Amino acid sequence: MQLSWLLAAVLFAAAASVPIDRPKAENKAEETPPEPPDTGLYYHRYLQEVINVLETDSHFREKLQAANAEDIKSGKLSKELDFVSHHVRTKLDELKRQEVSRLRMLLKAKMDATMEQNVQIDHLGLLKQFEHLDPQNQRTFEARDLELLIQAATKDLENYDAAHHEEFKRYEMLKEHERREYLKSLDEEKRRAEEARFQELRQKHKEHPKINVPGSRDQLKEVWEETDGLDPSEFNPKTFFKLHDTNSDGVLDEQELEALFTKELEKVYDPRNEEDDMLEMEEERLRMREHVMKNVDLNQDRLVTLEEFLKSTEKKEFNEAGGWETVDETQVYSEAELQRFEAELAAQEAELGRRAEQLRRQHQDLQEQQVRLDAQKKEYQQAVLQMEQRKTQQGEAPAEELKFQALAPHAAPADLAVPAAPGQALEQNHVEPPQNQQQPSPPQPEVQVQ
After folding, report:
1. CA torsion, points 377, 380, 385, 389, in degrees to nearest 10?
2. pLDDT at 25
3. Cα-only R_g, the chain
4. pTM of the prediction?
5. Is 216 left (phi over 0), alpha (psi -120 to 50) or beta?
6. Contact 132, 147 (CB under 8 A)
7. In sequence order, what DSSP letters do the residues of 257-319 get, joined into one string?
8. pLDDT tens digits, one per residue of 312-367
9. Minimum mean pLDDT among 119-128, 192-201, 386-395, 425-434: which range?
10. What is the dihedral of CA 211, 216, 222, 228, to 10 degrees?
């Protein structure tokens, strides 16, 4: 079972609410409730899990159904958290600890990407920037946490549509900027041809059937006839409301309202057509829903009750057969805003160019350092190779090793002779006697006496 439509409006403006009890067929399988739409909030999962746990407590659900929007927004309902069961409180405590852990991991990842390593992080100080929980108490889920969660979701959702419009405006300005820059790159003849093509596509986009004002009788009767397949002469607002309250919770939420505009949007936008921009279609859907909410949602809780819906059908505007001005017929931005946007783009491009040049120089310096390192490495390798060669040469023995022996006192000088190589002169083998050794006398001629 889902929360009531009142809390759904405050928390995330689109969640399903408590269904109306209706008799079911005995053998009919119980239908699985539809998954609530994503709110787009960065804490959407935490928000949804808290809601799912609170729904399981009968006391809290009873108090919620009796509360009004002001009780929820002011935090009065949050005090009822003190009376929920221990089992529910335990689950809420665990959800909060998981959320704090998730936020810490996000903060650490962000700090690691922008700061030096081994920097002490003040998690408590950083957690204060998150408004959907109480950072002073990081262990248990208290009434203050529920109050902060409701207040944060209410504020963020109120700003969601405005942020979407601003994002779409920037998209449109960027598209026009790129178109103008492309035209500047063409010669005169091609520029005229491209301008003519652009005007042709623009005119083709405008050639569509009449768009009925969202929430008017003509628009609702068209849905009654073409979508619901009913006789337009039998159109009944109350029956229409119940047919399109798809989750039977007694209100039309934003998604149920936007579904009513599908036929009108299909008249203007076709994804197969080059001239039709699907992002413009989503902006158109948002504008239509805002128009209905402004004129029908009397208490501005982002939900339409049956009473509010029926009162809107009594207004004069409901029966007027006017036309709807599409987004391409509306001036989304001024020329001054476009010029400021282009100046901002130019500044961003200049900054990116400066950073790119800085990175290019750093890359060049690194390449030069790599060249020097490669040269030094080559020199070191050559030096090591030479040392290895010297060690190898010193460690190897010659082919014929010389053996030196002590000479005998009267050793013949010939004993010192070294064998001569073949063909070498004999005198090269002659060893001179030591100078201090006495030379033998030459033989004297024999004299005979007569």
Report:
1. 180
2. 41
3. 47
4. 0.60
5. beta
6. no
7. HHHTTHHHHHHH--TT-TT--HHHHHHHHHHHHHHHHHHH-TT-SS-EEHHHHHHHTTSHHHH
8. 999 888 887 678 999 988 889 999 999 999 999 999 999 999 999 999 999 999 99
9. 425-434
10. 140
* End-to-end Cα spacing for the chain: 168
From residue 447, alpha-carbon distances to 412, 440, 441 in Å are 32, 21, 17
Out of 217-226, 239-248, 406-415, pick the least confident.
Answer: 406-415
What is the per-residue DSSP string for 121-189? Answer: --HHHHHTT-TTS-TT--SS--HHHHHHHHHHHHHHHHHHHHHHHHHHHHHHHHHHHHHHHHHHTS-HH
Phi, psi of 304 (to 5 degrees): -110, 120
Can you say how many angstroms the Cα of residue 91 is from the centroid of all Cα atoms in its chain? Answer: 30
Q: Residue 67 and residue 48: Cα distance in Å, rounded?
A: 20
Q: Locate tokens 């986009």: which residue? A: 205
Across the range 384-396, mean pLDDT stands at: 84
Which tokens belong to 38?
A: 């994503």
Q: Hey, what are 9's tokens?
A: 């409006």
- Which amino acid type is present at position 15? A
Please report, as a single letter, which amino acid is at residue 373. Answer: L
What's CA 351's distance to the chain center, in Å? 22
